[in-house]
Specification:
Elements lengths: L1 H16 L6 H30 L1 H18 L11
Helix pairs in contact: 1-2, 2-3
């Protein structure tokens, strides 16, 4: 997980800081809040899903969510930024 966060978090924070619609401070604070919220709520939610439908399907749900997240990533591009 650390390797994944090490790649994603700087990009997400940079995107938040470069948003034209929101000032950098509140945008970065919002991203940090969602990140910490995900770290706190993620494991109990996976446990709840595992309790309801099984561990294999709970982890499959995480895989599907990761694919959805990756497919939506181009929508976060900053207009006019070099690629």
């Amino acid at each position: 997980m650390g390797g994944g966060y090490a790649i994603v978090m700087p990009s997400v924070l940079s995107r938040a800081a470069n948003d034209d619609r929101v000032a950098a401070g509140p945008a970065i604070a919002g991203v940090a809040t969602l990140g910490y919220g995900g770290m706190l709520l993620g494991p109990p939610l996976v446990g709840l899903i595992a309790e309801l439908v099984g561990l294999r399907l709970a982890f499959a749900t995480l895989g599907v969510l990761a694919l959805v997240s990756a497919s939506l990533a181009p929508a976060l591009a900053v207009p006019g930024a070099p690629r």
